[in-house]
Amino acid sequence: MSAYCELRNVTRVYPGNAGQPALHALGPINLELEAGKFYSVVGPSGCGKSTLLEVIAGLAPASDGEVIINGRPIHGEVADGVGVVFQDDASFPWLTVRDNIAFGLRRQGVDETTIARKVDDAIRLMGLNGFDNAYPAQLSGGMRQRVCIARTLMLEPQLILLDEPFGALDQQTRLLMGDELLNLWRETNATVLLITHALDEATMLSDKVCVMSARPGILLDTVETGWPRDRDSRIVSKPEFGELTSRLWALLREESLKAMDIKQRTG
Ligand SMILES: Nc1ncnc2c1ncn2[C@@H]1O[C@H](COP(=O)(O)OP(=O)(O)OP(=O)(O)O)[C@@H](O)[C@H]1O
User: Fold this and answer.
1) Ligand 1 centre distance from Cα of residue 265 (Å)
2) Which intervals hold domain ABC transporter (predicted)?
3) I want to staple 1 with a disulfide (CB 3.0 to 4.6 A). Which of 34, 83, 192, 228 is the partner?
4) Where are the domains of the chain?
């Protein structure tokens, strides 16, 4: 299977401002994301996970190395076919659910009949029936996040990048949102890269979990879960689920301690 996205020796260094030293946040990282697979990235706090996602999304340039998406090198610009979902609720409070979801398509000048059909499908798929004309303030956090996911998926991205999209949700909602995300992944055949703090979420959702070291984050290991494509949240009760999650924690524990130590020493 071919790589949809490839990182070759990618690093990211934030230049120091006002006399502060530069900060080496990431890398060098080498990573290949095979088309149609579901990946998660876990790592200690501050190891560079969001930086990695920003570099792949083209929201920040790599300081060194190459990012190749669908065969094309990118240099800090958003590649065609890439959609990003962030943790913070990024719905537009002044627009209804329908208009939030339709936002990107309208900007692209898509005709209103097509928009109406696609938005109807998304509302059904994301379980937002009956809330078409509600405003974000009238929705729960989980529903608002579904609106944001639907808005991104409307543009039919081939590569979906998610930065802690369920971070603010309770455990049950996260599991159910995970199921929805798996359904969407299967229906769209997209390649998914999910950044998460939650090892159980990474284990449940992914084909492969990439484990990062303490900052500057490099790839320590990749754990293959071996789940079938038609998995759902019921796998959390399987013995292999506990074994995989424990394996991830064993890999991460020492790195997390290193990250804490750095924090304590630098105040
Ligand atoms: N815009 C920026 N300018 C300078 N330093 C930054 C910037 N963004 C992030 N950093 C630093 O880069 C390092 C990596 O940050 P990043 O947010 O990528 O880590 P993370 O793994 O996503 O963290 P967390 O898990 O806590 O969300 C941190 O030390 C952070 O302080």
Assistant:
1) 17
2) 5-239
3) 34
4) 3-81+157-266, 91-156
Closest CA to ligand 1's atom 30: 46
Which atom of ligand 1 approaches the CA of 197 most closely? Answer: 25
Instruction: Tell whether ligand 1 has an atom less than 6 A from the beta carbon of residue 50.
Output: yes
21 CA distance to ligand 1 middle (Å):
15
Q: Distance between CA atoms of 46 and 37, rounded to whole angstroms?
A: 26
The pLDDT tens digits of the residues spanning 95-131 come to: 999 999 999 899 889 999 999 999 998 898 888 999 9
Judge if the beta carbon of residue 12 lies within 6 A of ligand 1.
no
| pLDDT for the residue 54 | 93
**What residue owns the CA closest to ligand 1's atom 23?**
46
Ligand 1 in reach of 13 Cβ (< 6 A): no
| pLDDT tens digit sequence for 55-96 | 999 989 999 999 999 999 998 788 889 999 887 767 899 999
DSSP label of 137: G
Alpha helices in the chain (DSSP H): 49-57, 97-107, 112-125, 141-153, 171-188, 199-205, 239-266
pLDDT one-digit tens code per residue, 121-174 = 889 888 899 999 999 999 988 888 889 988 988 888 999 999 998 887 788 888
